[in-house]
Amino acid sequence: MKKSDIQSIIRTNNLTKQFGDFYAVHNITFDVKVGEIFGFLGANGAGKTTAMRMLCGLSIPSLGEAKIAGFDVYKQTEEIKKNIGYMSQKFSLYEDLTVSENIEFFGGIYGMKRSVITQKRAELLQKLGLTSEKNSLVGSLPLGWKQKLSFSVAIFHQPAIVFLDEPTGGVDPITRRQFWDLIYDASDNGITVFVTTHYMDEAEYCNRVSMMVDGEIKALDSPAALKRTYNAASMDEVFYGLARSAKRSGD
Amino acid sequence: MNQFLTFVQKEFYHVFRDKKSLLMLFGVPIAQILLFGFALTNEIKNSSIAIFDFSNDEISRQLVQKISESSYFEVTNLTISTNTPELDIEQVFKKQAAKIALVIPRNFGHELMHQNKAQVQVIADASDPNTANTLVLYASNSIMDFQKERTGISRFPYQITTEMRMLYNPELKGATNFVPGVMALVLSLICVLMTSVSIVREKENGTMEILLVSPFNPLMVVISKAVPYFFLSLVNLTMILILSVYLLDMPMNGSIFLLYFESTLLILTALSMGLLISNVTASQQLAMMISLMGMLLPTLLFSGFMFPLENMPEALQVFANIVPAKWYYIIVKNIMIKGLGITAIWKETLILIGMTSFFTFLSIKKFNVRLT
Description:
The complex is a heterodimer of chains A (251) and B (372). With 251 residues, chain A is an alpha/beta fold. Chain A contains ten helices and ten strands. Chain A has a single domain (3-243), classed as 3-Layer(aba) Sandwich (Rossmann fold). Chain A has helices at residues 3-7, 48-55, 77-83, 99-109, 114-128, 143-154, 173-188, 200-205, 223-229, 235-243, and strands at 8-19, 22-33, 37-42, 63-68, 71-72, 84-87, 161-165, 192-196, 208-213, 216-221. In chain A, the strands form two sheets. Chain A has a six-stranded mixed β-sheet with strand order 6-7-8-3-9-10, sandwiched between helices. A four-stranded antiparallel β-sheet of chain A has the order 2-1-4-5. Chain A starts with a helix and ends in an 8-residue tail after the last helix. Chain B has helices spanning 2-17, 19-39, 58-69, 86-94, 108-115, 129-151, 175-205, 207-213, 218-246, 256-280, 284-302, 314-320, 324-336, 342-371; strands spanning 47-53, 73-80, 100-104, 121-124. In chain B, β1, α3 (58-69) and β2 form a beta-alpha-beta unit. Classes of the chains: A alpha/beta (251), B alpha/beta (372).
């Protein structure tokens, strides 16, 4: 393994997904470094979800290369799946299972041992302040708690990377702030965070962000550098400046 | 293996926490057995009969006596007069006071004694043709019995007596007909409906995506979903068998192992159909609709337990061959009622095995297609 492979946990080269003669994702090339919080931005319909699905091994690319944690997205999807965590934009825990059971289930399908699950679960519940709620059905929790639990479950098996697809949709600002504390926490523990979002204030929290327009990456840098380059006061302005050139309409 | 067990455990949580589905799972079979067993029955008892006796002699009175003693009939309207009958009969039927009428003409006894020949008329309300048919049959049987009793054997130089034996079901009980049908129906209902809905629910809730991103083999996702319903179906089957054997006196003459083996085949067919449906649908409502139309309806119509297949147009009879429940129905009847072994039903069993493999293969293939 080359040194650059170790430093870059996600490496793509001209990654493309084509549906008929429509390029959902067109020649995207970027690297994500180990431990980085990488913001993946773009308007609706820009191709973020398609790109993310390819990186997660859910969808086979049409062209180009990509390596996730050193594994090839064409041939080693099983290895990739073992090394990643995923949280979708829909709330995705089982509402008719208790907090404990959800953690146990998701730990279980990642092949974690029962004793390890039990111990780590206790720690997690303590950290989230959910110990008294461990036997409540998840459906009865407030949305903010659900989202935090959902994220914690996605990184429960200590993946190398966690993919977050618009994780904070519909959550109030305070909970969002708490949510980002959890993200920083995960990043400090060496987990690389790959996050898509619509909130430009969240883009500021990322180490680096990429801007996707019409299936292509139009800009990629740290938020501060982007603001300098585009002579903008905030990420909002950067986003509007780039998104205005989009030909595709959002869905 | 550990992952698999974790998954199956989770499915059982889902099943046992969904009280409505649970009620449907176990309530529907019990209700069906009880309904078919006690409320809905083809046997007709104590039907209202109107008798118009225009003869009013000794023999006619004996005939009336005979009819009213029968357990099939209850005389609700006895007219003894010499008026024209037509109007009265219409009235009786229109008021729904009787379903059938027996008219004994004038001089009935006289003609019978002196001409060795007399006529009676049976008029039935055929707005319900099945009931009318059965009642007319009962009535003419009673009259024949009456004739036999009166004449004895000596009057005729020779006579042919038909001795009837209803094999395997001497009392002509309805249970033998509908219990296998209910079994086919319930197994199809649970497996197809519940499996497809539970998989589609994961798609709707977005949890399917999480499962597909996990290293857990996607095919195992659906297989482990099928496991709880497989066991619940067997529990249900056992429940139906116990109820029907001990409560409805359904015979159980054949091998119980063979019966469970054949049932397993039907369950597997139904499960793979459920998986197939869940692969091509995205909403629970749609999955439910397709399950009901695609599995429940054909089972009800074409298994032969409600409507005899022999009476259907040929095209429908041919169509019935692709309904798994039809073959299962034949098999169950042969095992339970006739006590036949595998040698007698190997053909039906093979067909069922064929269908099971076909649908299992198809649903697995379809599932792979969806993932790429």
